[in-house]
Amino acid sequence: MKTLLATIMAVLLPLAGYGQTAETPNVYFTSEISPESLVKIYHALGKEATGRVAIKISTGESAQTNYLRPEFMRNLVEEVNGTIVECNTAYSGNRSSTESHRRAIEERGYNEIAPVDIMDEEGSIDIPMADASHLQFDRVGSHIANYDFLINLAHFKGHAMGGFGGVLKNQSIGMASREGKTLIHTAGEYSNPSQVFGNRRGQEAFLESMAAAAQAVHNYFHGNVIYINVMNNLSVDCDCDGSPAAPRMHDIGILASLDPVALDKACLDLVFNHQSTPGDDSSPLIERINRQHGTHIVDYAQQIGLGSTSYNLIDIDNISGTDDATASTASSNRYNVYTIDGKKVLTNAKSLDELEPGIYIINGEKTVISKK
Question: Could you read off the pLDDT of 70-83 as tens digits, one per residue?
Answer without folding.
Answer: 999 999 999 999 99
